[in-house]
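name: query_chain
kind: protein
chains: 1
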Amino acid sequence: MTQPLNPPPVKVSAVVGLLVFVEITSGLIQGMMLPITPAIGKAYGVSNAALHWVSVVQLLSAAICVPIFARLGDMYGHRKLLRISLLFLLAGSALVAWAPSFELLLAGRALMGPMSALLPLEFGIVRSRLEPGRARSAIGMLVGSLTLGTSLGLIVGGVVHAVLKDVHHTLTVPVVMTALCVVVVAFWVPESVERAVASIDWAGAAALSLGLVTLLLGVSGGPVALLGAAAALLALWVRIELRAEHPLVDVRNLVRPRLVGLYAASFMLGFSMFGAQTASATFMASVPEKVGYGFGFDALPLALMMIPSGLFAMAGASAMAGIGTRVGHDATLLLGLGLTAAGYLLVTVLHAHPAQFLAATAFISLGTGVALASIPALIAERAPITDIAISTGMYNTFKTLGGSVSGAVFAGVLSTMVIGGTASPTEGGYVTVWLICAAASVLAVLFLLAVARRASAAGPAAGSVPAFASAPGKES
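structure:
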């Protein structure tokens, strides 16, 4: 059921341009943390092992916040929850910047969990307020802006800290940027139109949150027993959702042909994208005189190498809607995944020189950008209009899970394939990582095609839109 609203018409620029600023800020905050994390360790006197929790705490908080904030946005208004998310982000950023202890800094990172819900909530606004063609373009711009902001954050974090030489002052930048976003969203971003008429499924939310947190801890190096506990909690969540009158997530919708392939592709995309980022960074930082490969880059050259990747990813995401109009939006997703696989295969042989590495990773970034924008755009069109935020929020969850799994897998690969007598990975270890990433992208393509073939054989169900049924220039 929906509760229709009749707000006045708004300009496209009011919906898109201002939200682009929010996503650039979100990416900037995420990107800044990487180059200054060592400085955080020195400022608080904590070990490198303890610094691992700076990212883990925010990731775990996001696993809890995204489904809940997204569903509340579908029920009470996406702009309203966007405002609340930004207030959490502002409070968390301020605590991180000025925390007197490392424990309070981690508490601030936990408060920043709703940052991961910003994108699904923005998808709900643009899908509600714009016609499908423009909504598709807007989603591409938002995804591209997040990617670009992350790349810029790497530079901003390194440069600002080099100038200010104080981690607390450096971390004040996200506080100022977030405060500007709060003002922008409070006064100029329009509210979405449709509402889901339901009550929040707190039992389902609790089971899903506990299941995701346990799973993420398990794949991040925790005891193996955590994986069994996660499976049990997620099975309980499925049972709760199937019995709930108004489930947090309609699990039946997750496995329907029009969406199941997209969620599987989300997992595979996160697997290859997040897992390879750390591996590629450590490869470029390796000193060739010591291990026979790498470029010996420190933080600033590494950040500069990542800027072109961000630009290519943004270009791919921004071009997604135009490509889809010409070749079909489902074919565009396959194209993005294909380019990603080709890029990973290229980098297995072209990594002896920085220019070669940049050329090969350009294909990865371009393809990843296209796929990152295509998947949520297709989900937003195929999901019920009152479930946009929660449906695209689950895309983010599957992508994050994929990255968590690949982080554990690739850590195992690089710790096993080492140069004799050292702890340094062999060049073959990195090649193996890139080959696995290429295989993940190919598997995503094959799964999407298999789902499409099965849906075509079964025939479209009444009132449904089969996966991969759109023609060039037509709505999915």
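note: Residues 11-187 form a domain with the Growth Hormone; Chain: A; fold (CATH 1.20.1250.20).
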